[in-house]
Amino acid sequence: MTCVVGIVDTDGKVWMGCDSVTVNDYGFAYENNYRKLGRNGDFLIGTAGSARVVQLVKHVLEPPPCDGDVYQYMARDFVNAVRECIEKAKAEEEYKNSQLLIGYKGKLFYIGSNYMVSENSAGYFAIGSAQDFAMGVLHVTSLLNDMTALRRLNLALETSDELNAYVSRPFYIESI
User: Fold this and answer.
1) Using only C-alpha atoms, what is the Rg of the chain?
2) Fold of 4-175
3) pTM of the entire structure?
4) Which residue of 4, 45, 103, 122 has the smallest Cβ count within 10 Å?
């Protein structure tokens, strides 16, 4: 129950932003101390779903080095490292309801709950319960040539906050 938004800007920088609310199984909402967004080495990682998965991919995952094509690396080596990390922590059930956005080497990748890796050719993506709202904003703003990636990101998060009960400020934004 969240919104994480990623955009690759025209300079090849990856921007990501997220909200900060956590909603438990009983509907209790609170601002969390862990961020749904963070770095792990050269990776900017956004997560939607289990808080345990957030902790694992940010603090336990040890990505292997990339020695070739970035997409092939993500679809083979990186995602296998994620899977191994999740399995070693016995967090497979938690991962079934999780999604990842990964910024790496000027590219933005989506990793689904089935470990499928994709890269949206449009240069943006959103995950979480407000994904549809954010993707709509990102699409419309992609048609405007004078809007910065940071402004587009903020508009997607603001719209998600306004229209989705499970998204709330403050927002956190990073780039890599």
Assistant:
1) 15
2) Glutamine Phosphoribosylpyrophosphate, subunit 1, domain 1 (3.60.20)
3) 0.95
4) 122
